[in-house]
């Protein structure tokens, strides 16, 4: 069995990447900052993905591209092997990313001013795309119970009266919850009660940690197929968001017959020439690489857990059940959200995602991306500790 060197230290500066090359305006002059914010990893994209792109580039023409049989079969096999989910080629289509897919779905499913519900704190582009499509934001905030996010089903039942669509994050970002089959089924049944469609973002699903198991929301109960549209991609698991490719899965035939031509006519199904071979290679060859990466991520989580417990006990983390993101409660420092972000940038020299950007319930929290080398993560945690010790000694 092949093993991969996940721990390789790679310089990403000046590669045109968002994580490192867009942060200069936010960094105080003369400061060095470790960027642990936007949700991509510092690990090398798998060699078999890069090889697939290189092979495609051996052909001298980068013309308009269509989904290949290799691409379609790779998705079918991955969904079957990972989630025991049977899909046919007719039931999914390519989209250039999750957020653009949500944008077009809202335009298709709703009219201006229609209500679109989210459960914050949650992935910030959800609220942004609702605003940008001139829909009405409806919120049913999650509850924090025993340091774990839970759905407030009574509140959700009430708020769904004002919504036409719900956007659901499964697994949850930033909290890392892998919602259970029972929770997903309950959400589905409430949405069916109020005639609400569900757009389900499952981009972090492949990064679920055993013994937890991710079940696609559309499989949570028999009626889910009638109202759930699934968005799924290899971007997070195989560290390839720059490829810009995702899948939109619709099991309900009548909806599919109306939606897919709409997406095709809008140009959303025109693919990147390199996306189809890259995605196919990730799914066809990626299981061992993914297992190695999951082990490394879990070791990083264990390191942060132990460090906070022993060195910074006033800061509490939510235990993630999936992915490389940790939501940390900084409220004990008694700083405003603006002060907290400035403190971490200027005094600790680290850049995290402010919890406030995830909406209601994110106040006083920060999201830490631990998808990086242990050496860099250890340095960042030491810098946070020094800054906190200095702050509390005043």
What does this structure look like?
47% of the residues are buried. It is globular, with a radius of gyration of 21 Å. It starts with 17 loop residues before the first helix and ends with a helix. It has helices at 18-21, 47-57, 69-83, 98-109, 125-132, 153-159, 181-193, 253-265, 275-285, 287-311, 337-348, 374-392, and strands at residues 34-35, 92-95, 115-118, 136-139, 143-144, 149-150, 165-169, 197-201, 228-232, 246-250, 316-317, 325-329, 350-351, 353-354, 365-369. The strands form four sheets. Strands 2-10-9-8-7-3-4 form a seven-stranded mixed β-sheet, with helices on both faces. Strands 11-12-15-14 form a four-stranded antiparallel β-sheet, covered by helices on one side. A two-stranded parallel ribbon has the order 1-13. With 394 residues, it is of the alpha/beta class. The protein folds into two domains: 18-46 and 287-392, Aspartate Aminotransferase, domain 1; 60-284, 3-Layer(aba) Sandwich (Aspartate Aminotransferase, domain 2). Helix 3 (69-83) packs parallel to helix 9 (275-285) and helix 10 packs parallel to helix 12. Strand 3 (115-118), helix 5 and strand 4 (136-139) form a beta-alpha-beta unit.
């Amino acid at each position: 069995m092949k093993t991969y060197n996940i721990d390789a230290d790679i310089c990403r500066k000046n590669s045109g990447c968002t994580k490192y090359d867009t942060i200069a305006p936010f960094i105080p002059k003369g400061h060095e900052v470790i960027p642990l914010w936007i949700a991509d990893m510092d690990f090398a994209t798998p060699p078999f993905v890069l090889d697939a792109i290189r092979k495609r580039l051996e052909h001298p023409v980068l013309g308009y591209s269509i989904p290949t049989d290799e691409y379609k079969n790779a998705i079918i096999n991955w969904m079957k092997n990972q989630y025991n989910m049977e899909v046919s080629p007719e039931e999914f289509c390519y989209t250039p990313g999750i957020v653009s897919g949500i944008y077009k779905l809202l335009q298709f499913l709703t009219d201006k001013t229609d209500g679109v519900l989210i459960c914050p704190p949650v992935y910030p582009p959800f609220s942004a795309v609702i605003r940008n499509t001139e829909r009405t934001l409806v919120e049913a905030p999650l509850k924090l119970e025993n340091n774990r996010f839970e759905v407030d089903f009574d509140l959700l039942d009430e708020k769904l009266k004002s919504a036409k669509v719900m956007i659901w994050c499964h697994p949850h970002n930033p909290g890392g919850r892998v919602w259970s089959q029972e929770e997903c089924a309950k959400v589905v049944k409430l949405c069916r009660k109020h005639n609400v469609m569900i757009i389900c973002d499952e981009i972090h699903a492949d990064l679920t940690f055993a013994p937890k198991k991710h079940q696609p929301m559309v499989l949570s109960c028999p009626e889910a197929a009638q109202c759930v549209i699934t968005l799924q991609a290899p971007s997070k698991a195989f560290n390839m968001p720059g490829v810009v490719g995702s899948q939109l899965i619709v099991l309900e035939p009548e909806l599919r017959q109306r939606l897919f031509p709409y997406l095709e006519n809008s140009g959303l199904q025109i693919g990147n020439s390199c996306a189809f071979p890259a995605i196919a290679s990730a799914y066809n060859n990626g299981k061992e690489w993914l297992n190695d990466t999951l082990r490394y991520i879990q070791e990083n989580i264990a390191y942060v857990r132990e460090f906070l417990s022993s060195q910074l006990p006033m800061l509490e983390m939510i235990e993630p059940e999936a992915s490389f993101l940790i939501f940390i409660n900084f409220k004990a420092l008694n700083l405003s959200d603006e002060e907290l972000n400035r403190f971490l940038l200027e005094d600790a020299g680290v850049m995290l995602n402010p919890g406030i950007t995830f909406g209601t319930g994110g106040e006083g929290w920060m999201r830490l991306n631990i998808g990086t080398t242990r050496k860099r993560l250890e340095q960042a945690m030491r810098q946070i500790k020094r800054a906190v010790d200095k702050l509390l000694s005043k």
